[in-house]
């Protein structure tokens, strides 16, 4: 937890999803600390609060590093999905099963959220080129199908793409919140009725 953020409402809440072993925790910790750690307990679910600067603005992010199957339909998992503003869905480029699972995860998100789901697709472990089983073009095509931004990276080697993925998701969420906060324009019929109402009130009885 970043000091001084307790009690503050986060600007964006992220949930990081994907099959166990794809490197979700490594990506999150790399983003938070710029460091790479090899071993994690994949059964542990963690939430981090992180203050950073995006587009010259101080923002507070709350990031949930999920554990277990990402498409688990338990009440607990459904609550976590509803909690999040956006999602980073991770697969490993050397694990075809984790890539194939992405569509199921996105379908589950759509079912639970029942609205436009803001998500970023991340292909991790690009440092393991000799083990690659999912091409970059396959990742890009899937992202197009799912209407997600797409990044390929390695938690062990890179930081720029990881930071960009988190920042891109925050920008998307911010745009949506700004659109939701704008007052809706009155329909033409409403405007005409209000104009007539004002006119008769001004004239008064004759």
UniProtKB/TrEMBL annotation:
Q: Which Pfam family, giving just one, matches this sequence? A: Ras
Please give the catalytic activity noted in the UniProt record. GTP + H2O = GDP + phosphate + H(+)
Q: Which SUPFAM superfamilies does the record cross-reference, listed alphabetically? A: P-loop containing nucleoside triphosphate hydrolases (SSF52540)
Which controlled-vocabulary keywords does the entry list? Answer: Hydrolase
Under Enzyme Commission nomenclature, its number is: 3.6.5.2
Which PROSITE patterns does this chain map to?
Answer: RAB, RAS
The superkingdom of the source organism is Eukaryota
Q: GO MF annotations for this entry?
A: G protein activity; GTP binding
Q: What protein family does this chain belong to?
A: Belongs to the small GTPase superfamily. Ras family.
| Name of the protein in its database record | small monomeric GTPase
Could you tell me which species this protein originates from?
Answer: Octopus vulgaris (Common octopus)
Q: What is the lineage of its organism?
A: Eukaryota, Metazoa, Spiralia, Lophotrochozoa, Mollusca
């Amino acid at each position: 937890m970043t000091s001084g953020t307790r009690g503050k409402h986060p600007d964006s809440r992220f949930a990081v999803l994907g099959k166990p072993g794809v490197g979700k925790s490594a990506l999150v910790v790399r983003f938070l600390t710029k460091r790479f750690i090899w071993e994690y307990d994949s059964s542990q679910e963690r939430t981090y609060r992180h203050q950073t600067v995006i587009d010259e603005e101080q923002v507070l992010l709350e990031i949930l590093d999920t554990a277990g199957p990402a498409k688990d339909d338990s009440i607990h998992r459904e609550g976590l999905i509803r909690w999040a503003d956006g999602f980073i869905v991770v697969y490993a480029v050397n694990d075809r099963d984790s890539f194939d699972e992405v569509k199921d995860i996105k379908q589950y998100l759509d079912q639970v959220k029942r609205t436009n789901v803001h998500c970023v697709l991340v292909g991790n472990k690009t440092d393991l080129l000799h083990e690659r089983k999912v091409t970059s073009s396959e990742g890009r095509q899937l992202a197009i199908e799912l209407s997600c931004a797409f990044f390929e990276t390695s938690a062990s080697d890179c930081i720029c793409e990881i930071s960009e993925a988190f920042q891109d998701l925050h920008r998307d969420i911010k745009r949506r919140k700004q659109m939701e906060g704008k007052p809706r324009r009155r329909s033409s019929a409403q405007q005409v009725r209000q104009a007539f109402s004002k006119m008769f009130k001004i004239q008064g009885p004759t």
